[in-house]
């Protein structure tokens, strides 16, 4: 049960583009590393080890100087947009030491998100950050990020097995009938990684209250998918229409919800989710009531993680047919971890590379 580790060689969401204004460097902890994200004056997002090469002061506490360099708040080492130390105020008469350069993290901006690769850059290969075009093309509401005191895999598992809608979300988005809907599993390689998706198709489904409020149909045909697109992202797509009308554009309603699960460390992650629909009003309505659902999931994840602290001592999980997709997700993630040059245990103690 890999609930005490994470894949380090993956693209992870560092935040939404607008969380990184020009020349306001931000310090984050991603995959147990101190990560500096800095949108430099040329509007490009850069990422570096957040530790000053001098005495480990977080550079995210530093200030941008009139000549555009980032000055460490402690003894004033100054770094340019490439992470090169270009000035040391206390010894301007001597050359800059050759190792006075920040370790860069691969970083990119795409579809309104900033992505960082916290692992070994040599392992990127054909892995690309998954596209999220709905952010720009549909009406999207992004909830404030949540720091979840649980390993990120617990959120992924929550999404890959939605039989928890009863009882955890009973009366808002869930009911027992939903948990009985059969599902298919689709596996495919996308953006250089293995992915797993559940597909649930239901007919004449009596919708729980929130779905009736949002979409207006008491009884629907429904198409519902949960797709672990990468260690970083799970995409949920829901389409409903009155019975017999699914696929008929004027009648069909639905949403896409992306869940970005970025490990902070082995026992916590940042959960960012955003809902996208084709109607501004619908997105607004969902954004008002969905936090109740998120709170319920958060409540469960916190408790599960606490109980991970006990040694198994003869305990083992029981698997149901509904666990099939999450077991596949676990396998994909553990294979990705094994593919790492370093084990998940050594992640904690690996010093910065020079
Ligand atoms: S710790 Fe940054 S200049 Fe000394
Ligand atoms: Fe949930």
Summed up, what is this model?
With 354 residues, the chain is α+β, with helices and mostly antiparallel strands. It is built from seven helices and 18 strands.
- Which shape, going by the Cα principal axes? elongated
CATH topology of the largest domain: Naphthalene 1,2-dioxygenase Alpha Subunit, Chain A, domain 1
Work out the count of structural domains.
2
Helix content: 10-25%
Q: Which sequence of SSEs, written as H and E, runs from N to C? A: EEEEEEEEEEHEEHHHEEHEEEEHH
Query: Total number of helical segments?
Result: 7
Topology, number of strands = 18
| Helix/strand/pairing category | alpha+beta
CATH-level-4 superfamily name of the largest domain: Naphthalene 1,2-dioxygenase Alpha Subunit, Chain A, domain 1
What small molecules does this complex bind?
FE2/S2 (inorganic) cluster, fe (ii) ion
Q: What distance lies between the first and last C-alpha atoms, to the nearest angstrom?
A: 34 Å
How much β-strand is present in the residues? 25-35%
Q: What are the low-pLDDT stretches, counting only 5+ consecutive residues below 50? A: 340-354
Top CATH class of the largest domain: Alpha Beta
Please tell me the CATH architecture of the largest domain by its name: Alpha-Beta Complex
- Could you report the average pLDDT, rounded to the nearest whole number? 94
**Rg from alpha-carbon coordinates:** 22 Å
Largest sheet: 8 strands, antiparallel
Write the layout of secondary structure elements.
Layout: E1 12-16, E2 26-30, E3 33-39, E4 45-49, E5 63-64, E6 70-71, E7 78-79, E8 85-87, E9 107-110, E10 113-116, H1 134-137, E11 139-142, E12 146-148, H2 152-160, H3 165-168, H4 176-179, E13 183-190, E14 193-206, H5 209-215, E15 219-230, E16 233-241, E17 253-265, E18 268-277, H6 280-308, H7 324-338
Antiparallel strand pairs: 1-10, 2-3, 3-4, 5-6, 6-7, 7-8, 9-10, 11-18, 12-18, 13-14, 14-15, 15-16, 16-17, 17-18
FE2/S2 (inorganic) cluster binds next to loops.
């Amino acid at each position: 049960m890999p609930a005490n580790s994470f894949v380090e060689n993956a693209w992870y969401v560092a935040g939404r583009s607008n969380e990184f204004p020009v020349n306001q460097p931000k310090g984050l902890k991603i995959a147990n590393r101190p990560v500096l994200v800095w949108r430099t004056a040329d509007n490009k997002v850069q990422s570096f080890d957040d530790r000053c090469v001098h005495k480990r002061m977080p550079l995210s506490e530093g200030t941008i100087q009139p000549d555009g360099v980032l000055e460490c708040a402690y003894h004033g080492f100054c770094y340019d947009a490439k992470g090169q130390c270009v000035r040391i105020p206390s010894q301007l008469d001597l050359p800059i030491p050759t190792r006075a350069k920040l370790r860069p993290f691969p970083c990119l901006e795409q579809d309104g998100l900033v992505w960082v690769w916290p692992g070994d850059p040599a392992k990127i290969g054909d892995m690309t950050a998954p596209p999220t075009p709905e952010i720009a093309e549909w009406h999207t509401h992004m909830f404030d990020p949540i720091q979840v005191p649980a390993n990120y895999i617990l959120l992924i598992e929550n999404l890959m097995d939605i039989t928890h809608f009863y009882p955890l979300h009973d009366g808002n988005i869930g009911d027992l009938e939903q948990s009985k809907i059969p599902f298919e599993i689709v596996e495919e390689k996308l953006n250089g990684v293995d992915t797993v998706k559940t597909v649930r198709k239901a007919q004449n489904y009596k919708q729980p209250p929130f779905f009736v409020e949002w979409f207006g149909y008491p009884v629907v045909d429904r198409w519902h998918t949960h797709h672990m697109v990468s260690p970083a992202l799970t995409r949920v797509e829901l389409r409903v229409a009155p019975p017999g009308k699914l696929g008929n554009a004027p009648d069909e309603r639905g949403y896409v919800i992306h869940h970005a699960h970025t490990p902070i460390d082995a026992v916590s992650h940042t959960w960012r989710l955003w809902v996208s629909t084709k109607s501004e009003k619908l997105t607004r309505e969902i954004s008002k009531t969905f936090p109740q659902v998120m709170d319920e999931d958060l409540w469960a994840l916190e408790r599960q993680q606490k109980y991970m602290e006990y040694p198994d001592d003869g305990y083992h999980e029981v698997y149901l047919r509904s666990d099939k997709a999450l077991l596949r997700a676990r396998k994909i993630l553990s294979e990705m971890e094994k593919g790492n040059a370093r084990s998940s245990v050594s992640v904690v103690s690996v010093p910065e590379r020079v």
